[in-house]
Write a structure and sequence with these properties.
- There is one protein chain.
- The chain has a domain of 232 residues: FAD/NAD(P)-binding domain (3-Layer(bba) Sandwich).
- 35% of the residues lie in helices and 28% in strands.
- The chain contains eleven helices and 20 strands.
- It has an eight-stranded mixed beta sheet with strand order 6-5-14-15-16-13-17-20, with helices on both faces. A six-stranded mixed beta sheet has the order 8-2-1-12-19-18.
- The chain is globular.
- It binds flavin-adenine dinucleotide.
- The site of flavin-adenine dinucleotide has 33 residues, from helix 1, strand 2, strand 3, strand 13 and helix 9.
Amino acid sequence: MDSSRAARTAVVVGAGIAGLTAATALARGGWQVEIAEISPAEATSGWGLCLTGPSLRALAELRLADSCLAEGHGMTTVTHVDVTGEPVDQIRLPRLIGARRPAMAGIARPVLHRILHAEAERCGVVVHRGLTVVAVEQVENARAAASAPSEPVRVRLSDGTIRQAGLIVGADGIGSSVRTRLGLDASVDYHGQMVWRALVPRPPWATGIHQFAGKPNTAGFVPISGSLAYVFLTENGVEQSYLPNAELAPRLQQLLEPFPGRVEELRHLVAVSKSVVRRPVRTTFLEGPWHRGNGVVIGDAAHAPAPQMASGAALAIEDGLVLAEELGRHLSVGEGLAAFTGRRRQRCRTLVETSVAIAGLEQAQRHHDAYALVDACHQQMSEPA
Ligand SMILES: Cc1cc2nc3c(=O)[nH]c(=O)nc-3n(C[C@H](O)[C@H](O)[C@H](O)COP(=O)(O)OP(=O)(O)OC[C@H]3O[C@@H](n4cnc5c(N)ncnc54)[C@H](O)[C@@H]3O)c2cc1C
């Protein structure tokens, strides 16, 4: 047995969506949890996020869906618009948290993080900001430490302090350093696309998601509150590159120019945007084990899809719930982590692979095939995690 239920202490690395939800679920299961988050301050700006049905379902399990719906913008439809600016169809997504509640929600990232953070702290999780992990000693060495046989992970933090824990969870995103420290191999792939997001005032007509097919790029729009929305654009066939902040809004406006119809209105709104971001479309999927000894990686650290499926958050929140559930079911942490990976692997693989296929279809300007694949995958993801 590599650990016993008596030693229920965990260090979670990363206070993102995966880290905060896993910490909350573990704390509710009786674990003492500390989070080490490298960023010194909570984000006060940033772009929005679409919480799809599975995200809302997982948040409902954490009893947080209503707070997110109250502060975000509930939606049920996705309108597809073709290259001439004409709407071609409208998809109604399944309502996974009840017929009277919306199928999905747009929300500002800082708002979601605030809600998750507050709940983690309410459950007793201690969140340290400006702190990271500089060394992890795993089972073999730590087992020799007779004083702490049931807490076989020795974690050294960047402030020089040491934690002896029963579990370390790497929730530190696609570039995870915990993944490397645990010796888990992953390649991060770039897909020739840069994605743009701009926060804008919400026009009254924009009550659901809109996706606009274009040549060579695609664009869209997601409401995130009564007054705010974000415009998105996927730029095809470009190298990964950096643009200074001052160039972002003018360049995004330029990229939106060829789109007919309502995008014209959105383009003018981008001019007054206070936040425009541009990120590379990168994915990873850990083919080998996701855990070693009493360490595990979750969320984007284990499986990062391309953003086009708007489902990375769903996978991250589901990971936290399933992790706590499986650790609660097994006396041994090692067995719990193996069961966790067994339950999550195929679902996460399907999502990452589909998102990569969508990126390819977009690059080939096969918009209708991309839409169909997105919708089919949303249907598949609506099955329980
Ligand atoms: C442009 C874009 C748009 C997206 N849109 C959507 C969407 O609409 N809907 C959706 O569901 N998903 C979307 N996603 C995906 C989603 O954002 C991710 O899947 C999700 O954030 C993963 O959560 P995470 O907690 O695993 O990782 P992250 O959100 O990356 O969080 C990792 C955390 O770990 C911290 N950290 C990193 N390194 C260290 C370290 N060494 N030590 C300590 N802390 C560390 C980071 O500061 C961060 O707080 C989008 C992604 C992108 C790039």
